[in-house]
Amino acid sequence: TTTTTTTLPAETLRINCGSATAYTDSNQNEWQADSLFLGGGGLFSVTNDIPGTDDDPLFQSEHYWTLEDVATAPKGQVGYDLPAVGRAGLPFTLNLYFAEIFWTVVGERVFQVTVQTASGPVVRTDLDVFKESGLMPYVLTITGFVPDTENVLVTFTHGSADNPKINAIELELASSETMSSSTTTTTATTTTTTTKTLTTTETTSDTTATTTTTTTTSASTAAPTTSTAATMSPTATTTITT
Length: 242
What we know:
Layout: E1 2-8, E2 11-16, E3 23-24, E4 30-33, E5 37-38, E6 42-45, E7 61-64, H1 67-72, E8 79-83, E9 91-98, E10 110-117, E11 120-127, H2 129-133, E12 138-145, E13 151-161, E14 165-166, E15 168-173, E16 176-182, E17 201-202, E18 207-208, E19 237-241
Parallel strand pairs: 2-4
Antiparallel strand pairs: 1-16, 2-15, 3-4, 5-8, 6-7, 7-14, 8-13, 9-12, 9-15, 10-11, 10-13, 12-19, 17-18
């Protein structure tokens, strides 16, 4: 019997969108500089305090996309392509962080967010960050399972006003353990042989011979190779936290 175990540890990817520098937050988590984005886009930042957070640098910069960026982007997609190599079918939690640092009125920026999961796209339509949380940070949390493409694709679509944007991204990938086992029984052959016995009895002129015939039997048994693997049924839910 042979057993093989492959383990992927839990992993978290954090991006400080719109910023060229990495950041260590108040909980000592590391956020890398802006990367993994699709479709170019523009950067905007401010220096004023952000109410409701101890981590102003995560919300003082943003990555945004204009209609021109969409027109020139491959497949017309703008957003972020987050890797999840080797984790197809495994659960994830995606936190998308926003703060409205340009507009101060409801309705001035409205857009759509789409996240691809194993069970299909999760869509948040008509997102107006200022309407949701004013000048304070807002987080859109999406939980689901990683698609077969082994990535989590986040795309933005223009809505009724201005450009889609984002301030920070946090992707939490769950740990996994895959076990496979195989059992093999070798073929066994049993041979039984009975030899010929000759018995001679002398009388006046007759000879009597007693003969036992030879028999050979063969038995062959083989057990099939078996393997087990964990499977998961993908589902997706959307949670909004302000």
